Amino acid sequence: MSAKASPLILALGWIALPLLAQEVTQVSPPAAKPAEKAAFEFHDGDKVVLLGNTVFEREQRFGSLEPRLALALGDTKVSMRNLAWSADTVFGHARSYFGPPEEGLQRLTGHLELLKPSVVMLCYGSELAFEKLGGLPDFLTGYRNLLELIRKHAPGARIIIVSPPPLETLPPPLPDQTDANKSLSSFRDALRKFALSQNTYFIDLFELMGGVPKPGVIVKPLTENGVHYTREGYDKLSTKLVEGLGLAIPTVAPAELDPIRREVLAKDELFFNRFRPQNETYLFGFRKHEQGQNAKEIPMFDPLIDQADGKIQAAKAALLAGKKQL
């Protein structure tokens, strides 16, 4: 018999090849799913400091974030201090008062050394929405310097970087925010890479809050003016922030949160007066020769703030205990 294959055998071989390929495909294991992002790990006794501009500073008006985070952490107890400053930048412009930005960073240094945070959550960069990303290189340099400052004066602090949330287009005469949101989307992409390079935890609040909105006027706004969030806006923003940390908030009615929220608002007011007294120029500045003797009263806020922390934890424990009994 000839060693050369006959045409019939060759034809049968060509028919069998697709069948074999199909059989191999069927028995191949399914492709592995991408690994889910690990939850941020909080430790009992953590002190969380919020740093940023208006997005974070205005949160203390509503007390939305801390109650939700407290419930999501269950028996783990953490405290929160809001060091955010409206219109501030990574360079320290707003918190510098009348001096250069360096003065603002010096003030921040003092606050970090006082508080000794173990977790710092930052939200900066909203201004990049209107600068068409022209200032992005300088911004990232400033952000890197700010992180170095935090790590120097709060050694061991774990850092969370949060992207700014989207803006809303409201009826005229308020502006259309379409282009600004496109800039924020591109900025978010750059910030994600930066956060990874700095070995920090990243929360994409821009996408969690809906990403680039559809063109046109927002039907049910969560902001007062397209930029500043309302109480309902902060309730959603806070919920998404906690989800971005990889945590789950127990199901509670809004009214059930009110006892914790009230204690948080009281604590935040005490802390605001502690670190930003209205007459600081007279207490510590160039007019301290007039009322500087009253500066000794400012540290007296500290035990009151600690007591307020205890009331927050007690209100949380009462709510969780009630849930367990149901």
From TrEMBL:
User: Residue ranges of the SGNH hydrolase-type esterase domain?
Assistant: 61-235
Output the Gene Ontology terms for molecular function. Answer: hydrolase activity, acting on ester bonds
Question: Which keywords annotate this record?
Answer: Signal
Signal peptide residue numbers: 1-21
Kindly give the Pfam families that the UniProt entry links to this protein.
Lipase_GDSL_2 (PF13472)
Q: Which InterPro entries match?
A: SGNH_hydro, SGNH_hydro_sf
Source organism, top-level taxon: Bacteria
The protein's name is: SGNH hydrolase-type esterase domain-containing protein
